[in-house]
Amino acid sequence: YHPDSNSISYTTLSRFPPVTLLPPNQRKRVLVTGGAGFVGSHLVDRLMLLGHEVTVLDNFFTGSRTNVSHWVGHPNFELVRHDVVEPFMIECDQIYHLACPASPPHYQANPVKTIKTSFLGTLNMLGLAKRTKARFLLASTSEIYGDPEVHPQPETYWGNVNPNGIRACYDEGKRVAETLTYGFHRQDGVDVRIARIFNTFGPRMNPQDGRVVSNFIIQALRNEDMTVYGGGKQTRSFQYIHDLIDGLIALMNSDVVEPVNLGNSDEFEIGNFALVVRDIVADLQKKDPSEYRIVDRPMPKDDPQRRRPDTTRAKEMLGWQPRWTVEMGLGEMVRYYKAKMVEGSI
Ligand code: NAD
Ligand code: UDP
């Protein structure tokens, strides 16, 4: 880094993508819990490229080393196998707390572990933020609105959650994580941010994840039945991963302490969404859409009937709005899975 230079400099170590060379007073020590997962690994890429020092904590429950293996050995990067249910000590300036399984089959597989991860994991990471005076960002979720009676959902809506249903380990876990976060803020002055993330998709979603976007794409690429649950009239609004990462970093570096919705307001009925995915895959495979089968399966219990973010706050306070259309993002993701299938890794 040359203080006289107006242009950005990069360090180029041959094995790695070139990372920005930041002056020491701008370089942050950033901890990313859940950094080997889908969202976490994209966040790590962006923070590394921006020139920060990044430590990933992950127990590899749903994430994998390969998601961040391209950074292993880089002087700015560290990967630590650790379960956030146990305390962890490190000096850092910012904590992005993402560790938690996010897909219904995974978080319902061991509901007690899920709620422990949300409660104890968040407690431990807030304790670390308090000790090190790090700024703390919680990856919360649109699920805290439950099966919403208000549509679209603004941050001021308190939600409609079944506290003892099969989704409660996740929904209520995130709700209590938000409560803890504001408890540490009010009581101990911890500097906090809360992102309420709506359905997000993109490359590196675990193909066995069970969430709708990965299921539909993998099923269509393998010419298996595309499974629409419960008739497909329920809605979701899907955002592409790069938009979410822009929003998370903008929120962390803002002074907005209130919760902020991050999502794309492009809302689809799930049955129609299956048709959109089918057509994109058919186009890539140069097949006729009628060659793909869409089948109906039972609706999972407590499945929210509609969901769309009100993103006015993100727009006004962060100057953030999604830039990727769902179709553009789906095209990227379909090509990614196709390439992985060709190389035999999925
Ligand atoms: P993911 O399952 O791909 O990633 C979660 C990561 O956390 C994985 O790497 C997993 O191994 C790790 N992890 C889980 N439990 C842990 C524990 N006890 N200790 C340490 N590591 C642990 O899911 P994702 O989609 O990347 O989600 C990341 C975060 O974003 C989660 O907190 C999730 O609730 C939130 N979120 C995601 C979405 C979405 O659509 N992707 C929507 C709303 C909220
Ligand atoms: N879904 C579906 N087929 C699948 C997987 C999911 O129809 O193979 C439906 C699911 O019932 C829900 C929506 O798609 O209504 C989104 O499900 P996902 O698990 O991706 O996310 P979440 O329910 O947590 O929003």
From TrEMBL:
Domain NAD(P)-binding: from-to ranges: 31-333
Species of provenance: Schizopora paradoxa
Membrane topology classification: Single-pass type II membrane protein
Reaction equations catalysed: UDP-alpha-D-glucuronate + H(+) = UDP-alpha-D-xylose + CO2
Pathway where it operates: Nucleotide-sugar biosynthesis; UDP-alpha-D-xylose biosynthesis; UDP-alpha-D-xylose from UDP-alpha-D-glucuronate: step 1/1
Domain of life: Eukaryota
Principal location class: cytoplasm
EC number(s) stated in the UniProt entry for this protein: 4.1.1.35
Enzyme class: lyase
One CC-aspect GO term: Golgi cisterna membrane
Ranges annotated as spanning the membrane: none
Gene Ontology biological process terms in this record: D-xylose metabolic process; UDP-D-xylose biosynthetic process
The keyword Cell membrane is assigned to this record: no
Sequence similarity: Belongs to the NAD(P)-dependent epimerase/dehydratase family. UDP-glucuronic acid decarboxylase subfamily.
One annotated GO molecular function: UDP-glucuronate decarboxylase activity
Cofactor(s) needed: NAD(+)
Record keyword Transmembrane helix present: yes
Subcellular compartments: Cytoplasm; Golgi apparatus, Golgi stack membrane
Name of the protein in question: UDP-glucuronate decarboxylase
